[in-house]
Target: NAD(P)-binding domain-containing protein
Amino acid sequence: MKVILSGGTGYIGKRLLPALLEAGHEVTCIVRDRRRFQSHSTTPGKLSVTEGDFLRPETLSLADADTDADIAFYLVHSMSSAIDSFEEMEVQSARNFVAAAKSWDIKQIIFLSGLQNSASGSPHLLSRLKVEQVLIQSGIPYTILRAGIIVGSGSASFEIIRDLTEKLPVMVTPRWLNTRCQPIAVRDVINSLISVMMHTPVFNRVLDIGGPDVLTYKQMLLQYAEARGLRRKIFVLPLMTPRLSSYWLYFITSTSYKLAVNLVNSMKVEVVCRENYTEILTGIKPLTYKESISLAFEKIARHHVVSSWKDALVSSSRRSSLKEYIAVPEFGCFHDVRQSEIKCSTGDIIANIWGVGGDNGWYYADFLWKIRGYIDKAAGGIGLRRGRTNSDEIYAGDALDFWRVLLADKSAGMLLLYAEMKLPGEAWLEYKLIENKGVVSLRQTATFRPRGLSGRLYWYAVWPLHQFIFKGMNRRMAAARLVP
Model:
């Protein structure tokens, strides 16, 4: 079948794409920025990529692609991008998608929504419901799958549970931890999405999918601790307000404040399947919550985390594209350039560059990098807690601590990062191997474009630290292999 996949660079989209290709389908991915798209397909003839932004309908022409498609997956989501305005964005995006889908002659729309509770709903869940209504009224056959907490390596829910349980032996928690939900393994979500493709009995139906366990969030934390061999105590207090709960999640976990607010608003609402269709659709018994945790850690141990919520641009900003930042500015900027002749093989230096950040740290004065991360978090930024999705690979679009990867080209020995920390300006960090008269050196360039007087004062204030940090980091990275 011919499939159009929107949201191909998102958490679910990155996992659905290889499954579609492996099943032999022809897939056209619509992405905002082609540079961020990474395909590991062994059947490139089955995959095409086109740029389009569902908030800008004029970009959705697929003249270069085969638009005689059977199915369109709609996997676009904006919950992380704002606290109070994502509902309008969601609805407008869905309307533009429907208009485009009609021109593509789509025979079925498949949408992954959220489990609903008729008694009450958070802004996030209500926005999902409004998107459903737009798709239902489109006149195109649809299948809507509603899922609750999705558990898998790199999912926002899994990473938050992991952060809380791994870091806090004793937790004093808000009362929403007693709210019930029905978690589902990401594997079962992908299988469910594939199983409904052109399956006429599920046309024009809204189906709930979930795992076999109905748990409170407290039980999820305790079962995670049990699966990891940890002893944890949790005390639930009725006094913590939604605002305090949001700050609690924000400072303890790697989530952004915007996402923390939206998650807390959603977690106050009980979301349990009315009727669970997971096994009916897939023919496979869904994984239990503990089995989902075990599978997630198998992926982590094998360095096979396919996607992470942190890599989505909306997890840290409202930007829909990073194209304009690829060309590093030269004028009106401050520059710190360091260059050291390499003391080992170029392969070792490439390994150093591609291993930077996350658990490996920044190779020099790591305690200062951590302090900068704490300051950023306290100022409302993202801090260093995002780490990196893969321990040994970096791709354009990946989150890397408080940076975003703009360009990662091993053949050219070049890595370009853009700062997503709180700054009175914009910053880039570039690593590049250069050769001159047979001598290979590692050049490290920090570029800062200040915003007004505050930006200039900031640069001069941190200049003494840069002399220490950047000099030491460049020399150490060029002298020996640092990543095992």
Observations:
- The chain has 13 helices and 19 strands.
- The longest helix spans residues 452-479.
- The CA atoms of residues 424 and 458 lie 7 Å apart.
- The chain has two domains: 2-311, 321-478.
